Description:
Layout: E1 13-17, H1 22-37, E2 41-46, H2 48-63, E3 68-72, H3 77-80, H4 97-106, H5 109-119, E4 123-127, H6 133-138, E5 144-147, H7 152-164, E6 179-181, E7 190-192, H8 193-196, E8 208-211, H9 219-228, E9 233-235, H10 246-250, H11 260-268, E10 287-291, H12 308-311, E11 316-320, H13 325-329, E12 337-339, H14 343-352, E13 356-358, H15 365-375, E14 379-381, H16 401-413, H17 417-436, H18 442-458
Parallel strand pairs: 1-2, 1-4, 2-3, 4-5, 5-8, 8-9, 10-11, 12-13, 13-14
Antiparallel strand pairs: 6-7
Helix pairs in contact: 1-2, 7-9, 14-17
Amino acid sequence: MGYPDTTDNKQLHVYLFPVLAQGHMIPMVDIARLFAARGLKSTIICTPLNAISVSKTTERDRLSGLDINVQTIPFPAAEVGLPQGIESLDKITSPEMFPKFFRATALLQQPFEQLLEEHRPDFVIAGMFFTWATESAAKFGIPRIVFHGQCFFYLCVGETLHLYKPYEAISNVSVQDSSFVIPSLPDKIEMTIDLAEKVRESELTSYGALVNSFYELEPAYAKHYRSILGRKAWHIGPVSLQNTNTSDKAQRGNTSTIDEHYVLNWLNSKETKFKLAMGLDSSGYSFIWVVRQIKHDDDEGGFLPKGFEERIEGRGLIIRDWAPQVLILDHQAVDGYMTHCGWNSMLEGISAGVPMITWPKFGEQFCNEKFVTQVIKTGIELGVKEFNMWLDAKSVSLLKNEKIASVVTQVMGGDGEEAKEMRQRAEEMGEMAKKSVEEGGSSYADLTTLIEEIKVYTKR
């Protein structure tokens, strides 16, 4: 869908430099496609191995006539002691690799500045972990916009924790599940000490923030972030809705380990709204379970119990490593979604209009859980409390089967008034999400505002 640039004849050029992790690269590619569809020249900066998956998506847009490109810079794995081939956080195989990886990303500053000097884009959108990107862009008079990959709610929580430090009032800091109320937010939100220590502060020196969300989803927090906290930001999501055909949905991100036609045929064989669950055999519902393969698991099955696949044959579908998630969630047979609470996944579930069960593991995922269960109320907590920065088969604290089955039944099979209202809210949110990115919608309008503001900036 090509939208002409009607403001003037100058074509703006945007550089997009995502954090080297699938959860950041996927939405950033969608954002690049959004800008290209509005008449801008979009250039995605990434490393050679990551460029393979990125180019797979952008090539379809290039063939349709959009001005979108991929520019590579070398990843300094050897300089920091990483094995060759480790160019993404998703490829890290041990906790010891994390500091090395972030040292490597710091070394990307110099080649990135070379590109800026050579090509002089009009503005830069860079991931939150590239803390030097604002300084780099400023050397050439280029505004840098930060992309956190989170919602307004998360940004408001992080800034409020930084300003007020409410967790310091708790006397017994050794009790990790001690909770406190975050002050000055539109809603009463309780969190734990453990989360407060890990919520990151927003970048304060950037030109502004780009938010993968839509106004109708969190109007109070969009206003709070902009008006009360005084931050400049634009909501342009859900960016996943840029993927409108089966190929775009199926090939988004990494190459799936399962053929999309097989998945669609399996889903088509189920009744509409079949109650999706994740590995919940005792719930009695049909489900798709996406299982990450952990290379150092002792047994071949990893998380899967022995004989599990044979037992659930016909009722459950196991997909290993990477699944066409948007394709699955958008199918009419899907009526619920258990999620790890990454914002991309949660927003994709919201856009699909399905209620959610939340199972966070670390970082901002616990914050996102609060948003979907306490603010928009389209999900139910599974009750996970432990923070697991490194996930493997031995460190996962499994909940009791009875608890999982109970929550699944409550979300997907509950006939009570509360369950019905939750499903209705989820469906309404899904409809609002789709309208927000259409011409005349709130996210469409905010993207236009950003483009026009950058045009004015370049004329200074």
